[in-house]
Design brief:
By secondary structure, this protein is mainly α. It is 78% helix and 0% strand. One of its GO terms (cellular component) is plasma membrane.
């Protein structure tokens, strides 16, 4: 998509990201719709496979995979609701903050983003305990605690994202986004960073000792590290796909420049992250891959 940035400092207070409604070219809109329609279908199908695999496969019903299912639920909602709403916004060229389409699409996008971030944080803590305290893991990470953490994260992110409905002027948007970013993204990422610093340090020590371990302990240690590395890949992809949107958001609200086309381009990249995650799980986890094939054969 050719990104056309409008350098017009004048803003309409009710404007969603720009008051100019003519500069988004038809070619860009068509490309935006096609790309996002494809990612929407892939996100819906892929994440539905993850959720179904965990639900129907007893061996996959572990705390780690419950957290992954929670993240897949958020990604599923992105494909099912958020992406179609963004397509509608682009096609109808809606640029009013208080428009119902703006409010709902912002709410769903922000809530699912924060739910995914807390899901990543939860599964990182799960991997942290599994690698640093393997003998205490089953006592610390129980199914009830796992489900409580998931429900708490979803309830918290729903409440936090709902404040978007109270923002009725563009001047208030930066305050809301900053607050949501701090409590919904930055704090979980700080926890993720410190957990992985310890995980990689412990994994390095385990590799040195691996020769002295029994074959069962060695296999278990390798399996736990592989799971941790898979989550690290998911986190890395998440940061790569969402960073452009964070940058455009920051520039938009600090430089007072209209970046509507840039918003559409970066949001497309960010939302596509939801379509990619299921296939990373399948590529890295043979159990998921076998469950995928089994489910697809039943169709």
């Amino acid at each position: 998509m050719a990104v056309n940035i409008t350098l017009n400092g004048a803003r309409n207070e009710s404007g969603c990201y720009s008051e100019d409604k003519t500069y988004v070219q038809t070619r860009g809109i068509v490309l935006f719709c096609l790309a996002n329609s494809f990612s929407s279908v892939v996100a819906i199908c892929g994440n539905l496979l993850i959720i179904s695999a965990v639900y129907k496969t007893t061996s996959l019903q572990t705390p780690t995979n419950f957290f992954i299912s929670s993240m897949s639920s958020a990604d599923f909602l992105v494909g099912l609701i958020a992406v179609p709403l963004w397509i509608a916004r682009a096609v109808l060229n809606i640029t009013q903050n208080t428009h119902v389409l703006c409010l709902i699409s912002d709410y769903i996008t922000i809530q699912t983003l924060m739910a995914s971030t807390y899901g990543l944080c939860s599964v990182t803590v799960d991997r942290y305990v599994a690698i640093t305290s393997p003998y205490k893991y089953n006592h610390i990470i129980t199914q009830n605690r796992c489900l409580t953490a998931i429900l708490t994260a979803w309830a918290f992110t729903m409440v936090l994202a709902s404040f978007r409905f109270l923002v009725d002027t563009r001047s208030e948007l930066p305050k809301f986004y900053v607050s949501a970013a701090i409590f919904g993204i930055v704090l979980p990422i700080i926890v993720i960073y410190f957990c992985y610093a310890k995980i990689f340090k412990t994994a390095k020590e385990q590799r040195r000792k691996i020769g002295s371990l029994t074959s069962n302990c060695r296999a278990h240690s390798v399996k736990q590290r592989k799971a941790a590395y898979t989550i690290a890949i998911i986190i890395g992809v998440y940061l790569i796909f969402w960073t452009p949107t964070f940058i455009v958001c920051f520039l938009d609200f600090t430089l007072h420049i209209c970046f509507y086309d840039a918003w559409l381009a970066t949001v497309s990249i960010s939302l596509a992250n939801s379509a990619l995650n299921p296939w990373i799980y399948a590529a890295r986890n043979k159990q998921f891959w076998r469950a995928f094939k089994r489910l697809l054969c039943l169709l």
